[in-house]
Amino acid sequence: MNKMDFIKGQDAGSAQQVGASPPRLEARRKVTGRAAYVHNASAPRMLHAKVFRSTVAHGRIRSVDVSEALALPGVHWVLTGEDIRQIVPNPYYGPAFHDQPVLALDKVRYVGEPVAVVLADDPYVAADAVNLIIADYDLLDSVDDEIEAMTSKAVVHEELKPAGTFPDLKHLHGKRNTNIALDYHLRRGDVASAFASAHRVFENEFRTQATMHVPLEPMVSMAVPDDDRLIIHTASQSPSFVRLEIARLLGWPENRVQVKVPHLGGGFGAKLYIKLEALVACAALIARAPVKLSLTMEEQFYTITKHPTTFRIKTAVDAEGRITARKCEIFWNGGAYADIGPRVTQKSGFTAPGPYDIENVEVSSYALYTNRPPAGALRGFGIPQLVWAYESQADIMARALGQDPLEFRRHNLLRDGRPQATGTIMQDSAIHEALELVAERLGWNEPFDRGSGDIRRGRGIAVGFKASISPTTSVAMVTIAADGSVSLSISTVDMGQGSDTAMAQIVAQVLGIRTEQVNVVHPDTDATPYDMATLGSRSTYHTGNAVKLAAEDARTKLWAMARDAGIDTESGFSWPSVFKAHYGMQAGTIIGTGTFIPDYAPADENGQSPLVTPYWMIGATAVEVEVDVRTGHLNIVRMINAVDCGKPLNPRIVETQISGAATMQLGFTLSEEMNFEAGQVTNASFADYKIMGIHDIPGIMENHIIEAEQSKAPFGAKGVGESSTFGISPSIANAIEDAVGVRLYELPLTPEKVLRAIRSAGGNPLED
Amino acid sequence: MSKDIAFTLNSRPVRVTVGSHENAVDVLRRFDLFGARESCGQGLCGCCTVRVDGKPLSGCLTLGLKLEGAMVETVESLDAGGELDPVQQAFIDQGAFQCGFCTPGFVMMTKQLLREKPQPDDEEIRSYLSGNLCRCAAYPEIVKAVKDAAARMAAAAA
Ligand code: FES
Ligand code: FES
């Protein structure tokens, strides 16, 4: 970079930065294989950790015999839950509930739960030692299914332990003999009388399966003790949370815990809150040595998953096909530990009636404990599970009423200015535009080749929406060094979504420099300020606003310093000369700060709020699908996605977010499913858990950004990492029905399920 | 059991002690080469791709001892001298990655494809790269990047 660039200051980069598509700041590091991942990290005297896991779904721990493991040469420590208790008397963590022990205590609650950990010089020795540990359990009845969990005698947690930070969870404190971690309710209007006077009532049940994020960089954390401090290098999406939660567990002030996050090899919600950090932290303090834990791909499946759901949806329509009432009951299979499940249950729950204008609504959404690996956030935060149901049912109803599915939606969709189920007025939400765009691009109203013989074609459409996770805080800091060079410090994690680049664009735009001149400091809680977490497509809006404020603050300070020095700020001026004039030499730092918390109004006991979210995210998909009626195989001939993300900061990166999220959801729609036998995941490998590969991309895939602008957003932009997931699953199921006349209610839409449905419909069912 | 072995690593002779249970990724880590990285550990994702005696291999399935006497090249060899390889430049220009964890594997395989077939069509590209997974699903951009790289290399050769 040319040093002269800074000297001209404002004039140097007068070109538009926001809305342009500069390449990612870290591009060279990534293509050369030199980007820093935690995976690369090591420390002198480091011990390798390997976890010994429960083989039973639910049991009381009778004994854990670690003697043979401990005797293996090269093994330094073998720790169990009781050892952890020596340094953390109450070793339970979690963002919503303090329910998850660092290592199992008294009980195990799922197959794969960490029970003990071996620390050894060498990772292979640690793995060998794990095989020498013997645990003995008294088996307890277990519960797998979210519906069973509502009434099951098998209770996963004796007592509920809400974290106390959330007022709406307080009533659950100390509750016993229940698997319901949260029951969320929303009521609006009078559902009962609307159902009584309805023209037609439709009642359906839809289900989704357990899936896993499988970031290609498996979870990894390393803790390094440093006298009275602890440094944690971790592949985490939420360094600020890791710091405060580890400090809470240890009873330390936050400033004695330092959390550093380099590049992340994908996250998708898997690397949020506490995953391995509490274990490596405790192990490192006990061993008084650095401890690194790198999960295998298989172990990721035992760590966090996406909620399987059952969604019972009941809808009333009048004679014109207008939806008059909707009752939603959603059951979220949260697994053995709550993680962020209660938030998914609630924050997604209130959108369960869909982006439709409905007078009378009732939502009941239940977070349930079961004896399965914990479920948390996965790209969409529960929304894809909901859209799957309400957009499948939209087609069921349209067909039954003899209406075109697009027309049916047009009649019923919310318009800006109308209240959503929470009472919050919709605004800046291009729901109609997104739907119309995908319909037009697919040629919805034009005739198409419906196929013949064994290959039949059909089309489907779907639209969904999502609220932002509010209220949450982001803080940013922009510094200008005495030579005029600029750095941005944020704890937002760039896990591949391109936030470093987008945030640098904001800074560059405000300061009038070029994006690549901005150094983005990677999350390091000693240096970068608080950010709630990188999740739920919140960064663009929340962090983006904080970054813009910080850059404006830095600019104001620099300009003021210039005026003090008698420098004319009307035209371009030399930034270093301002510092020189002020400090008498190349010295000093300008620090601009910005803090952003969006406007938000908490909901009342009926789930009503005038402002439940600062913005809405919108995604629509239209597909044309080929079904092979002999085999049930699907071929996605065309897929058109459109999202409302406000005004994109970096259209090129946004486009890859749209296509990446859509492809991921395509995997959850067509093939991905964790299988269980007696609580044990039986396909925790890419050999049997099929994610989308290069051959699975639809023949034609278009990804569109609706022309829109979000108010109160940084340069009109809002998040986009999840929006294209919304419509994928239901649009494909709708296309299958259009092609071959069968309706599927359960994801994934495997060839077997499609074929069974076709054969059953033809009166010739397949044998089991 | 472990053994001292010698081989050529990115054009330089090296010597290292390797355990019989260690794989090629473990061995490369000793040299602080992290571009080949273990993800699935089962030969199913391509993140660990290295070139051994001119052939791309899954480092996770290659025993470290097998490197003895071999000519080993990793992604770190491609920008020797600080100049990006045309394949790397094409990956940047086409935005062919997000998190970047899979990228060295795709770059190595693309390099090999273009050695074998300088002007591949879309289908040839997809089938050659079908052993590499990208969870961020940058596949459409990867296909474009391969074609872009092919065009650059052809132009440079002309
Ligand atoms: S890690 Fe070697 S192929 Fe996946
Ligand atoms: S870029 Fe993230 S896995 Fe490919």
Outline of the structure:
Chain A is an alpha+beta fold and 768 residues long. Helices cover 26% and strands 24% of the residues of chain A. Chain A contains 20 helices and 30 strands.
User: What profile does the largest beta sheet of chain B have?
Assistant: 5 strands, mixed
The general outline of chain B is globular
**Which percent band covers the strand fraction of chain B?**
15-25%
As for the CATH topology of the largest domain in chain A, it is Aldehyde Oxidoreductase, domain 4
Please report the number of helical segments of chain B: 5
Percent helix range of chain B: 25-40%
Strand order of the largest sheet of chain B: 2-1-5-3-4
Q: Which structural class should the secondary elements of chain B be placed in?
A: alpha+beta
| Distance linking N and C termini of chain A | 67 Å
The chain pair forming the largest interface, with residue counts per chain, is: A-B, 52 and 52 residues
User: What is the 3D shape of chain A?
Assistant: globular
CATH superfamily of the largest domain in chain A: Aldehyde oxidase/xanthine dehydrogenase, molybdopterin binding domain
Q: What is the typical, i.e. mean, pLDDT of chain B? A: 97
Give the distinct bound molecules: FE2/S2 (inorganic) cluster
Q: Please write the CATH class name of the largest domain in chain B.
A: Alpha Beta
How many DSSP E strands of chain B?
Answer: 5
CATH class of the largest domain in chain A: Alpha Beta
Which structural category do the helix and sheet elements of chain A fall into? alpha+beta
End-to-end separation of chain B: 52 Å
CATH architectural group of the largest domain in chain A: 2-Layer Sandwich
Q: Would you list the SSEs of chain B in sequence order as H and E?
A: EEHEEEHHHH
